[in-house]
Design a protein that fits this description.
mainly alpha; single chain; about 575 residues; about 0% strand; elongated; COBRA1; 32 helices; NELFB factor
C-alpha cells in the first residue's frame, strides 16, 4: 500500500476494524490464501444473514464486490449525514449536543479517511463548541483545516487572531484594488461614476459578502475585523477602509443579525446615514435623527465618536454631506439667509468636520468633536454664496438690452481669502472642491475658469486626490466643445493638471484617461504639445505607460496617411461641375 492507500484506511485500526494492512499481513503469513480471503470477507463483510445468499447472485451478474460495498457505503453515509443534521435540530439542546459529541468522539479517529471525512466534518459543523483538543488537531493539519466548514473555522479563528488575519488580509487587499480600479476606469462618464452604485448594490460585492459569511453571528470575529480596518486606516490613511466598515455593518443589518447589530453602538446612526447616501441628500427629518445620535453621546462613552467619525469619513458619506451643503447654500441665496442662521447647514458642517477628523481622532485617541472654525461659517461660506450671486447677476445682465457701455464682463479675479481657505482649512477645501464640481456639471465655463487657479495649492493636495479627479474628469466631458479653444486648454492643462503630473503619478494617469476620452475635441497643436508633456519617464509606473501607449495608438489612427493628403484636392475639383437640380 502506497501513501494514498494508507490515507484510505487512516484511523481504522484504533477502532479495531481490519484494514488493508491487516489483510496484507494475513495473506503473507498463511498457507491457504483463498481460504484466508474468504474468512476475511466473512468477518468484515456486511453482517446481515439474508445477504449471504444474495451475494452469489450478484457474482453471477458480474457485479464486483467492491461496487456492491461501495454503493451500500455511499447509501449509508448519505443516511448518516441526514441523521446528523436532524439530530442537530431535535430534542433538548443539551441532549442533542451530547449525542453529537459522542458521535464525534467515536468517529474523529477516521477524520483523515476521505470516505468518512464528510461525516466527521458534518458533526463538527453542527456543534456550537467543538472540543478544544479536536480544534487544535484540525488547525495543525492544513488539509483538515481547508476541508472543515466555516462554522468550525469560526471557532478556530476566534482564539487565533493571526490565523484569522491571514484569511482576511487578501480580501481587504482585493477590496482596495477594486475601489482603485473604479476610480481609474477608462470609462469616463458623468452619469456612471464612483458614487453611482446604491449602498445595497455595493454590499453585494464579493469581499463584503465573504467577510459577512466568515463573521456569521460571532461578535468576537466582527470586532477583530473592525480592529484590522482601524489599524489599516491608521497605517495607510486610505479612506476606502472606512467604506468597508460601514458596508460590513449594513450587510449584517440586511441579514438581521441582531447579535452583532445591537452591540455595535454605531448601528442606528449608520442605518440612518445609509438612507441619506441612497438619496444622495440629507433631508430635514434624517438630519434631526443624526443630530440626536451625536448629541446623545454620553459622558464616559466618548470613544464611540472614533467609530462614528470613521463611518462619516467614508467617501460615500462625505460625498452626500458635501452635495447637501452645496444645495443648502443655493437655497440660502434664494432666501436671503446667512449660513450662521441655518441649523441644518451647521449640522452638515459638524458631520463633515467629524468625518474629516477621523484619522486624527483615532490616531491621538482623544475622543472629542473637532472645534468648528467660526470663519468657515462667517466668511468662507458667504464667499461661496457671493459666487452664486455673481452667476445670477451675470446671467441677468446678459439678457438686458445692452447700452452704450457694452456687455459687462464676467468677474475674472478670485478673492485672495478663497485661495487661502482652500489651502489652510480642510472643510473649506472639501466644500470648495464640491462647488467647483457643481459648476462644471452645470457647464458653467466662466465660473470654472475663474476658480480653477485656486486648485493648484490646496489643503494636503486634495484637488489632486483620486476621488476629486475622477469626478472632475467625468464632469469635464460636459464641457467637451471647449477643448477646441486654446485658452481653455492652457488654463486646464498647463495651469492645473501639468503643475502636478511630474510629482504625482495618479494625476498623470487621470489626465491620460481624460485625453483618451476627449482627444478628438482638443485643438491639434495643443494635442501635440500635450503628447510631448505627458510622455512617461523612466520612473513612470506600468499604468501610465500603458495609458500613454493607448493614447499614442489612438492619435496615430487619426492622422491621415500622406497619400490621402495629396489626393484630397484632385477629388474635390469635379464636385462643382456635377449638375444640381437648381441649375437645370
Amino acid at each position: 500500500a502506497g501513501p494514498g492507500q494508507t490515507a484510505m484506511y487512516a484511523g481504522l485500526q484504533e477502532l479495531g476494524v481490519a484494514n488493508g494492512e491487516d489483510l496484507k499481513e494475513t495473506l503473507t503469513n498463511c498457507t491457504e490464501p483463498l481460504k484466508a480471503i474468504e474468512q476475511f470477507q466473512t468477518e468484515n463483510g456486511v453482517l446481515l444473514p439474508s445477504l449471504q445468499s444474495a451475494l452469489p447472485f450478484l457474482d453471477l451478474h458480474g457485479t464486483p464486490r467492491l461496487e456492491f460495498h461501495q454503493s451500500v457505503f455511499d447509501e449509508l453515509r448519505e443516511k448518516l449525514l441526514e441523521r446528523v443534521s436532524a439530530i442537530a435540530l431535535e430534542g433538548k439542546v443539551e441532549e442533542r449536543y451530547k449525542k453529537l459529541e459522542d458521535l464525534l468522539e467515536k468517529s474523529f479517529s477516521l477524520v483523515k479517511m476521505p470516505s468518512i471525512q464528510p461525516v466527521v466534518m458534518c458533526v463538527m459543523k453542527h456543534l456550537p463548541k467543538v472540543p478544544e483538543k479536536k480544534l487544535k488537531l484540525v488547525m495543525a493539519d492544513k488539509d483538515l483545516y481547508k476541508a472543515c466548514a466555516v462554522e468550525v473555522k469560526r471557532q478556530i479563528w476566534q482564539d487565533n487572531q493571526a490565523l484569522f488575519g491571514d484569511e482576511v488580509s487578501p480580501l481587504l487587499k482585493q477590496y482596495i484594488l477594486e475601489k482603485e480600479n473604479i476610480l481609474f476606469s477608462n470609462d469616463i462618464s458623468v452619469l456612471h461614476n464612483f458614487f453611482s452604485p446604491s449602498p445595497k448594490t455595493r454590499r453585494q460585492g464579493e469581499v463584503v459578502q465573504k467577510l459577512t459569511q466568515m463573521i456569521g453571528k460571532n461578535v468576537k470575529l466582527y470586532d477583530m475585523v473592525l480592529q484590522f480596518l482601524r489599524t489599516l486606516f491608521l497605517r495607510t490613511r486610505n479612506v476606502h477602509y472606512c467604506t468597508l466598515r460601514a458596508e460590513l455593518l449594513m450587510s449584517l443589518h440586511d441579514l438581521e443579525i441582531s447579535e452583532i447589530c445591537t452591540v455595535d453602538p454605531c448601528h442606528k446612526f449608520t442605518w440612518c446615514l445609509d438612507a441619506c447616501i441612497r438619496e444622495k441628500f440629507v433631508d430635514n427629518k434624517r438630519a434631526r435623527e443624526l443630530q440626536g445620535f451625536l448629541d446623545g453621546v454620553k459622558k464616559g462613552q466618548e470613544q464611540v465618536l472614533g467609530d462614528l467619525s470613521m463611518i462619516l469619513c467614508d467617501p460615500f458619506a462625505i460625498n452626500t454631506l458635501a452635495l447637501s451643503t452645496i444645495r443648502h447654500l443655493q437655497d440660502l441665496v434664494g432666501q436671503d439667509t446667512l449660513p450662521r442662521e441655518s441649523p441644518d447647514l451647521l449640522l452638515l458642517l459638524r458631520m463633515l468636520s467629524l468625518g474629516q477628523g477621523a484619522w486624527d481622532m483615532i490616531d491621538s485617541q482623544v475622543f472629542k468633536e473637532p472645534k468648528m472654525e467660526v470663519e468657515l461659517i462667517t466668511k468662507f461660506l458667504p464667499m461661496l454664496m457671493s459666487f452664486v450671486v455673481d452667476d445670477h447677476t451675470f446671467n441677468v445682465d446678459q439678457k438686458l438690452p445692452s447700452e452704450e457701455k457694452g456687455p459687462i464682463p464676467y468677474p475674472s479675479t478670485i478673492p485672495e481669502a478663497f485661495t487661502k481657505f482652500l489651502q489652510e482649512n480642510r472643510i473649506a477645501c472639501e466644500i470648495g472642491l464640491y462647488y467647483i464640481l457643481h459648476i462644471t456639471k452645470q457647464r458653467n465655463k466662466n465660473a470654472f475658469l475663474r476658480l480653477l487657479p485656486a486648485l493648484v495649492e490646496t489643503f494636503s493636495d486634495l484637488a489632486f486626490s483620486d476621488i476629486f479627479l475622477h469626478l472632475l474628469t467625468g464632469n469635464l466631458t460636459l464641457l467637451g466643445d471647449e477643448f477646441a479653444l486654446e485658452e481653455f486648454c492652457t488654463s486646464l492643462f498647463d495651469g492645473f493638471f501639468l503643475t502636478a503630473c511630474s510629482r504625482k503619478e495618479n494625476v498623470h494617469r487621470h489626465v491620460l484617461r481624460l485625453l483618451l476620452h476627449l482627444h478628438h475635441k482638443v485643438a491639434p497643436t495643443k494635442l501635440e504639445s500635450l503628447q510631448k508633456a505627458l510622455e512617461p519617464t523612466k520612473q513612470s509606473g506600468e499604468a501610465v505607460k500603458e495609458l500613454y501607449n493607448q493614447l499614442t495608438e489612438k492619435l496615430e489612427l487619426r492622422k491621415p496617411s500622406p497619400a490621402e493628403v495629396t489626393e484630397t484636392p484632385s477629388m474635390e475639383l469635379p464636385l462643382p461641375t456635377v449638375p444640381t437640380p437648381a441649375s437645370r
